[in-house]
Amino acid sequence: MSSEQNGASAEAAPKPQNDKASKDSKAGAEAKSDKAEPKSTDAAGDKKLTGAELKAKAKAEKAARRAQQKTSKDVAKGEAAVSSSPGQLGPSAGEVKAKGKGKDGASAGAAAAGRPVLPKAPPSAVVTEQKIQIPECFSHLSMARRIPMTQADKDVHPSVLMLGQQMATFTIDESITRLKATLLAFRKVIESYITPPGNVLARHFTPHVLNIQIEYLTACRPMCFSMGNAIRWLKLQVSKLDMDASEEQAKKKLCQAIDIFIAERITVADEYITEQGAKHIKDGDVVLTYGRNTLVEKAILYAHSAGTKFSVLVLDDPYERLGQQLAKTLTDEGIKVTYSGDFGGLRNHMRQATKVFFAAEAMFSNGAMYARAGTCDVAMLAQELGKKVIALCETINITERVATDSLTYNEIDPERSSAAAFRLMFDTTPDKYISLLVTELGSVQARSAPDLLRKLEEFN
Amino acid sequence: MANVQDGAATRGLPLRGSNADAESFDIVATYHRLLKEDPDLTMPMAAIEALIEFLGHSQVKTVYETIDLVKTQSEKLQAAVRNPIALSHGTDLFSQYLIMSLKQPASSSSAPNGNSSSSKLASPPLDHPHESFEVVRQHLLRNSRLFATRAKNARERIAANGRKHLHDDTTILTMGGSRVVGNLLSRAAAKHDYGWYTDPPRRFRVLYAVDPALQAESDGVVQSLRAQGIQVATIPFTALAYAMGQVDKVIVGAEAVTANGGIISSMGTYSLAILAKASRKPLYVAAEQHKFGKTFPVDNFDFSFDQEVINFSSDNNKDDKAKKVPMPGPIDFTPPELIEAFFADHKVLTPDEVAKEVIDMLM
Fold first, then answer.
1. Does A57 touch chain B (CB under 8 A)?
2. What is residue B276's predicted lDDT score, i.e. its pLDDT?
3. A442, B294: Cβ pair inside 8 Å?
4. Which residues of chain B are within 8 Å of residue A441 when distances are taken between CB atoms?
5. Band (B131; pLDDT cuts 50, 70, 90)
6. Using CB atoms, which residue from A388, A442, A458 is nearest to B259?
7. What's the pLDDT score for residue B318?
8. Is residue A444 within 8 angstroms of chain B, CB to CB?
9. B293 and which of A194, B89, B108, B173 could share a cystine (Cβ 3.0–4.6 Å)?
10. Tens of pLDDT along A273-319?
């Protein structure tokens, strides 16, 4: 393990971070003072929530059923906030945000504005105290939340119900694993689907069954881009079904299509990317990676099993120490690993590295990479020191949308946000910081992501 | 139908017995013979021609078998040379052409280059895929020389495209004995008839950086340029930075063009490109479209082979047995940031456009 204390750390940290140190400590103090409150209100929470519920019910007595649903969502929100807030507040939330977005000053304003603005403040002010306060300008960002199973729509399939819980708790986290689990769950939904008399599967399935599942999943955790792409594809497959085909045939065809889709776009794609990515690891390389991602892990293991002699530098996200898991897996295989728990001495670590490997959560059409918060900082430094940044990504993760900053698309971390501050989970790395994008169609420059999309359309 | 089944059955096996001719055919020897016979042939083109000759020898009847065979032969060929980059660009282009033309109706398979494949919409497959296959195969065999002639014409088209970018009273720096660049310069010094307009000859001077390793090739180009009345000065490689102040444009050739719009070229091109960039002189690359390929090195040490150019030693004895032999014909990789534009046979394009074309053509 290398030492975290060295002179380079201050130099390595993006400038705004220093400016924010004072702000952070302030935020931390605020958080601490808040800390006591949620604990005391914890027990009272239920009472107050019921109050809110009653109020809402009274308000919308006429449209009883709809109101019921809405309220249950509110409750869920409140409960999630209550269950996650005490103990986890720490001085962290503001800091992470500052670090992830180090380069754009907008976030500084966000942290400062976090407190006073109370968007859509519901009548019961006490309840909102416990909720995570998102400033109005960030209201477009969504957040995972735990919805009690009892409050889900009755038509949500059990397998989807379970998957939703896993997603909400981040048990299933990576974009590609979420996608695969979703498709497999939908496959089960299709299998157990029975067309009501007088309907046709191709017409009835999407609006009355599939959409309910999707709504529930989205409520549990915002969809990732690959899920969006795949769901669009699945809906197209349903609509393309032959009207005269029997239900059995139609279901079989859909399941087959899903199986092929998983095989082509996920399984084989992963294998190919692993192989191609591993080819860029040469003898004597020091591979730097950030956090843990299955694709990067696979590529490193593949290169190792191919007999390449190299070492790995695992840089970790201090808020989700998944890199520890990666470091363990790699050392078990006999790979030399250096582990650093945070960005301390980042510049020093980067100097030792020869190549940087990332896996993209998604790729935007302008070649920007959407990945774990902090990736951009690492990529920028790699570029500055002339190290090559290699991004691994399945084409299903490429979206036709465009992002030039980290705030257009992002997700709020429900477990590490407080009333005072919230943490964003992702950031956007501009294409100029990425040397190479490895996909299952081939290795291209990040700017060529839209060309790959066009190519995919041609195949269909 | 029986053939199709046969093909499917043998596909899983390592192609034993089904093709006695294919086994006896030595693709590596053919490739080297072709290169030797025709000094004007480029490596990708020689690879394509060798594959066509191989198709002529093989008795395969099915599409899948052919594609599999072409693949194994390409791999064989690539394994036989130390630097397979340029060659693999040729074999990739050929197999892509095969796949594309087998997907399309036979009538549209008349363009052996298959370059404009992106513009053609993919048509539904024929009812009898192996009929179309036979058409394609016959077409290829009949026109095998067409590839070579086209490749040579490509050099003329590059000259026609590139001359618009050469101006009077300029000094052009080049190196490395590239045939494409030599042809471009000598054509530019003569008048060119576009049909509707006759372009007058360009009057420019040439500064030729001579690499001792490529002395013979360089001398040939210099002599032919001087024979055309072009003012040529030769300088050693060491004088490049010194001479850069006198230069208006730099033009180099390439062995292969990578997927990001960089080039793989004879050793020294990268240093020339860096010097040109530092002096803010535009660097142009004259290269045929068939040299474009999927290779994507992230840096100069990201190749599948080791050139063994750098060998550390503390032993003064030169006859050390353990000493590694540097690869003959060493190459380096010039990243796209250092390149202004490409003079290709179909058009003049920027590195970004090259990247796009590679995706359209080969992925």
1. no
2. 96
3. yes
4. 359, 363
5. low
6. A442
7. 65
8. yes
9. B89
10. 999 999 999 999 999 999 999 999 999 999 999 999 999 999 999 98
| A21 plus A169 within the same structural domain | no
Q: How far is CA B65 from the centre of its chain?
A: 27
CA distance A371 to A174: 10
Could you tell me the pLDDT band of residue B317, with boundaries at 50, 70 and 90? confident
Minimum distance, in Å, between the CA of residue A389 and any CA atom of chain B: 9
Residues A285 and A254 in one domain: no
| CATH number, domain containing residue A429 | 3.40.50.10470
Range of the domain at A76: 12-135
Residue A1 lies in a domain: no
A368, A374 Cβ separation under 8 angstroms: no
- From its phi and psi, is residue A434 left (phi > 0), alpha (psi between -120 and 50) or beta? beta
Residues of B326-342 as b/e, b for ≥16 C-beta within 10 angstroms?
Answer: eeeeebbbbbbebbbbb
Distance CA A368, CA A400 (A): 11
The reply to whether A75 falls in a domain is yes
Query: Is residue A444 domain-shared with residue A298, that is, in the same domain?
Result: yes
Both structure tokens of A370: 């959407």
Domain boundary among A268, A303, A336: A268
Higher pLDDT, A107 or A217: A217
* pTM beyond cutoff 0.90: no
Contacts of A276 in chain B (CB under 8 A): none
Do A437 and A297 sit in the same domain of this protein? Answer: yes
| Sole residue written with tokens 């009847």 | B61
* Smallest Cα distance from A379 to chain B, Å: 15
Place of tokens 């420019």: B204
A451 touches chain B (CB under 8 A): yes
- Domain membership flag for residue A140: no
- Total count of domains within chain A: 3
A355 with B298: Cβ contact below 8 A: yes
Query: In angstroms, rounded to a whole number, what is the distance separating the alpha carbons of residues A352 and A350?
Result: 5
Which domains, and CATH codes, for chain B? 2-142 (no CATH), 153-362 (3.40.50.10470)
What is the C-alpha to C-alpha distance for residues B68 and A381, in angstroms, rounded to an integer? 45
Residues A286 and A424 in one domain: yes
pLDDT band at A139, cuts 50/70/90? confident
A142-186 confidence digits (pLDDT tens)? 888 888 888 888 889 999 999 999 999 999 989 999 999 999 999
Q: How many CB atoms lie within 10 A of CB A455?
A: 18
Say whether both A126 and A186 belong to one domain: no
User: Does residue A245 sit in the same domain as residue A293?
Assistant: no
Pairing relation of β-strands A355-359 and A336-340? unpaired
Whole-number pLDDT of residue B363: 82
Residue A282 contacts B where some CB pair is shorter than 8 Å:
yes
Q: Which residue has the higher pLDDT, A46 or B182?
A: B182
In a domain, A201, yes or no: yes
| CATH number of the domain enclosing A233 | 1.20.120
List pLDDT tens digits, range B177-202: 888 999 999 999 999 888 888 999 99
Residue of A307, A310, A362 whose CA lies nearest to A337 = A310
Strands A426-429 and B198-199: unpaired
Q: To the nearest 10°, the Cα dihedral for A407, A408, A409, A415? A: 30
A301 and A421 assigned to the same domain: yes
Cβ-nearest to B363 among A282, A442, A445: A442
